[in-house]
């Protein structure tokens, strides 16, 4: 079981948030079967057209890439929660 807290994973340092996401997904794959649980998904996957910072876009793109790659990672399940579903990027 791997927990990602959306508020804690976001970093102002360029590339660090994306790296943290990749590491978690890689660890889950190595230890499969596994569950990745993302708390506060809206913090790492906001609607890209509504964001003004340069930090959010790469994080959303990285998350989408990792989730899309799960076709090959069939023994890893991704679950997420949010209280603000309307703020999440529709691609997620």
TrEMBL record:
Record key words, sorted: ATP-binding, Nucleotide-binding
Protein name per its UniProtKB record: ATPase AAA-type core domain-containing protein
Taxonomic lineage from the root: Eukaryota, Metazoa, Spiralia, Gnathifera, Rotifera
Organism: Rotaria sordida
The organism's place on the tree of life at top rank: Eukaryota
Classification via Pfam families: AAA (PF00004)
Domain ATPase AAA-type core per the UniProt entry, residue ranges: 1-91
MF term (GO), any: ATP hydrolysis activity
Gene3D superfamilies membership: P-loop containing nucleotide triphosphate hydrolases
């Amino acid at each position: 079981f791997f927990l990602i807290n959306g508020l804690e994973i976001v970093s102002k340092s360029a590339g660090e948030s994306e790296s943290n996401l990749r590491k978690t997904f890689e660890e889950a794959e190595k230890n499969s079967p596994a569950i990745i649980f993302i708390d506060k998904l809206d913090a790492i996957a906001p609607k890209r057209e509504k964001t003004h910072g340069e930090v959010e876009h790469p994080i959303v793109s990285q998350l989408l890439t990792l989730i899309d790659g799960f076709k090959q990672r069939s023994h890893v399940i991704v679950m997420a929660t949010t209280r603000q579903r309307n703020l999440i990027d529709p691609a997620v």
